[in-house]
Amino acid sequence: MKDLENNKALTITLKTIFGLEEVLGEELAELGYTKYKVLNRAVQLEGTWKDVYYLNLHLRCAISVLVQIASFRIRSEDDLYNKAMKIDWTGYFDLDKTFAVKGAVFSDLFSHTQYPFLVVKDAIADTFRDRYDERPDVNIKSPQVLFDVYINKNDVTVSMNTSGAPLFQRGYRDEIGEAPLNEVVAAGLIRMSGWDRKSPLTDVFCGSGTILIEAALLASGIPSVIERQHFAFKNFKNYDAELWEGILAKATKYVKELPCEISGSDMSAEMVTKARRNLGRLSVGRFVKTSVASFDEIKQPAESGVMISNPPYGERMGEEIDALYEQLGDWMKTEMKGFNCWVLSSNMEAYKNLGLRPDRKIKLFNGDLECSFRKYSIYAGSKRAKFQNNEA
Ligand SMILES: C[S@@+](CC[C@H](N)C(=O)[O-])C[C@H]1O[C@@H](n2cnc3c(N)ncnc32)[C@H](O)[C@@H]1O
Question: Do the domain assignments include residue 239?
Answer without folding.
Answer: no
